[in-house]
Automatic annotation (TrEMBL):
InterPro entries: GH (IPR017853), GH13_cat_dom (IPR006047), Glyco_hydro_b (IPR013780), O16G_dom_2 (IPR045857). Pfam families: Alpha-amylase (PF00128). It comes from the Bacteria. This is DUF3459 domain-containing protein. The lineage of its organism: Bacteria, Bacillati, Chloroflexota, Chloroflexia, Chloroflexales. Transmembrane segments: none annotated. Residues 15-392 form the Glycosyl hydrolase family 13 catalytic domain. Belongs to the glycosyl hydrolase 13 family.
Amino acid sequence: MKASYHWWQTDVVYQIYPRSFQDSNGDGIGDLPGIRQRLDYLQWLGIDAIWLSPIFPSPMADFGYDVANYVDVDPMFGTLAELDQLVSEAHQRGMRVLLDLVPNHSSDEHPWFVAARSSRDNPYRDWYIWRDPAPDGGPPNNWLSHFGGPAWSLDHTTGQYYLHLFDPKQADLNWRNPAVRQAIYDAMRFWFARGIDGFRIDVIWMLIKHPDLPDNPPDPQWKPGQPEQHRLLRRHDQHQPEVHAIIREMRMVADEYQDRVLIGEIYLPIDDLVAYYGENLDGVHLPFNFNLVTLGEWNAHAIRELVEHYERALPPGGWPNWVLGNHDQPRIASRLGQPMARLAQMLLLTLRGTPTLYYGDELGMEDVPIPAELVVDPQGIRTPGHGRDPERTPMQWDATPGAGFTTGTPWLPIAADYATRNVTRQQDDPQSMLVLTHHLLELRQASAALNRGSYATVATSEPDLFAYLRRAGGEQILVILNMGATPVTLDLSSVGPTGTIAASTGMQRTGHVTLDAIMLDAVEGLVIAIDEE
Ligand code: NOJ
């Protein structure tokens, strides 16, 4: 039965931010040999696929999302040979490795941009997006960088502005130029041929801009005091209809190889997001679904509506996926608090679709306050108070100085709670978040219903409750999440008379239950295997 599913449907993806996972040489920055040392851990945890945020040569203006060479490894992280070794060891364990493709922009230090800015008639000029200054000498239009400030910088030598939707050191490539497309496709082939199993593709929905670069209209929701870059609607600099033809081309490149995957980074509401599966499922395999991250209010009603909306909107054959956190978002445990983060983990690992876990969330790692003088994230520098360093701090492995992450000085401060919140400590604690995550992953792997079964909401009259049934063959798994602050007792005998507790968020409940009077504590979740009648 499993053979009819692709690995990227049945596996769980774990995002590693390489700078922060494991340092092997004492320079305070994580690296590839470090990741290799931790494969045992990942395997124990129950991870089948790892995605590495960029490891390519880069001036690190945006910590690798400013690529200066698409087909090599930055010496800070190791060598190409060390990457090959990591991939081969992961493969031996049945684990897949995904890299992060950053096609929207390159570093301004990439030889393509260096050539492009050297003169207006350089053959690489048209690989980027250049415009004359506005009549007043200012930028060609009103577009804003996601990090803050204008999305245009003036190149004094040639007298034109170049576009950068992010940092000035991240120049947007011109995807209307076929040579650019081929160059990136060749980079994809380079990695596929080396055995890379797929790519997470950075800001894929921004790849192509409106051909006339019109001004963006104001966002009526924006209020003074909010970051300036949210003042305008991003109508003309993202989500253009032509992007789908480009994604189809990328998909064709992936399809030249056996069983590879493309995961697109796309922050869009569900009805827009699902278009990225492609009209004939010829888009990305998984358009990242960040709707649990962007959800305004975290409550049972909003989450049920979201899940049902998503299930309805998916195109036939489109495989769902869910995300709770990543290197751009405040950590889930900080957003929701520890008890609710456990519930969220149960939700993530029992919903239908491929889950992506962000490193450290399995420990309930929290955002680390970063003093102003230690802020290094370009967004945090340009838009104080909105930096992403807090969610990128070193993995907390053990209670030794350096948290088992480094013997040197870590590039970002280690969380104050590392001596108590760490892998070693939590592996020994049967009720820890880590053991809960491990248990849920094991359960998901062993259960066809959880792994690939159908989804159906179970109606209840309790407003703070979200319950659903996952089914495959004769197997039925009931998930009940009490998101409220008070205990509840409920009758779900419509689902079946009895069941066995397979997991509880507190990791302290086991045994048989009758479904006509199930008791849940405040902020408690249960996974119940329904007994066959
Ligand atoms: C999205 C990445 O996740 C983020 O970290 C980065 O800053 C921007 N894209 C620009 O590449």
